[in-house]
């Protein structure tokens, strides 16, 4: 839109970026404090209950950036997107989340582990939203965290899962995964879908 916004000084590890650049979560260099930054405020907000020694956390902003989901190991919870204040803990994760994704309407939250197993929750009440989605014959197992990526399109009709040598997608509320030729392979470092869900970039 003709304007570039600069991150605060000292930002080291960007953990999550909100839709349309409406905010970001990062861990600061030096003291390793967890900070939430919004473009409309001059200074980032510290998340006090996130220990500096916490590493390997994954996070995602919901639509409109009014909600933030954060997973540390096998714990997962919802926070305010502007304040970072804990709002609700979700039960039943039972595995180390490698990636998170909200549905397009923000009503569902999905988490996937490095085996490609996807678990979903209803954001309103924290209850599980159906059985796990398990891709057939996962291409890889027990990967280092960060090699698995989960994403939904803006309308929420398509869920995509990328792993080294593997790209799969679910359409609608189905459970039959579609497989795509991942091209040159290698380890994925990001995943995105267009609004319609007809194009996937990895």
Please render the helix and strand layout as text.
Blueprint: E1 11-17, E2 24-28, E3 34-37, E4 45-46, E5 58-61, E6 67-72, E7 75-80, E8 86-90, E9 99-102, E10 108-112, E11 118-122, E12 149-152, E13 158-163, E14 166-171, E15 178-180, E16 192-193, E17 200-201
Antiparallel strand pairs: 1-2, 2-3, 3-4, 5-6, 6-7, 7-8, 9-10, 10-11, 12-13, 13-14, 14-15, 16-17
How would you describe the overall organization of this protein?
The strands form five sheets. Strands 1-2-3-4 form a four-stranded antiparallel beta sheet, with no helix packed on it. A four-stranded antiparallel beta sheet has the order 5-6-7-8, with no helix packed on it. It starts with 10 loop residues before the first strand and ends with a strand. Helix content is 0%, strand content 38%. It is globular. It has 202 residues and is mainly β.
Main sheet attributes: strand count, strand direction, barrel closure? 4 strands, antiparallel
- Residue-averaged pLDDT: 79
The computed structural class is mainly beta
Strand residue percentage = 35-45%
Number of strands: 17
**Tally of contiguous helical segments:** 0
Helix content: under 10%
Shape category: globular
Distinctive features:
202 residues, mainly beta, four-stranded antiparallel sheet, 0% helix
At a glance:
This protein has no helices and 17 strands.
């Amino acid at each position: 839109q003709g304007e570039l916004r600069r991150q605060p000084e000292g930002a080291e590890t960007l953990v999550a970026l909100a839709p349309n650049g409406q905010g970001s979560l990062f861990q600061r260099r030096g003291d390793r404090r967890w900070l939430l930054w919004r473009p409309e405020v001059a200074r980032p907000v510290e998340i006090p209950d996130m220990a500096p020694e916490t590493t390997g956390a994954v996070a995602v902003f919901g639509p409109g950036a009014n909600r933030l989901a954060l997973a540390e190991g096998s714990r997962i919870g919802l926070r305010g997107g502007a304040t970072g204040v804990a709002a609700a803990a979700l039960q039943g994760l039972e595995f180390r989340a490698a990636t998170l994704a909200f549905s397009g309407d923000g009503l569902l939250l999905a988490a996937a582990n490095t085996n490609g197993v996807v678990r979903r929750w209803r954001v309103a009440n924290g209850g599980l939203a159906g059985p796990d989605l398990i891709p057939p014959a996962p291409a890889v197992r027990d990967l280092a965290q960060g090699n698995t990526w989960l994403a939904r399109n803006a309308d929420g009709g398509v869920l995509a899962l990328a792993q080294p040598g593997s790209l799969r997608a679910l359409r609608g509320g189905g459970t039959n995964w579609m497989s795509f030729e991942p091209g040159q392979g290698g380890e994925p470092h990001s995943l995105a879908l267009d609004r319609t869900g007809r194009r996937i970039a990895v």
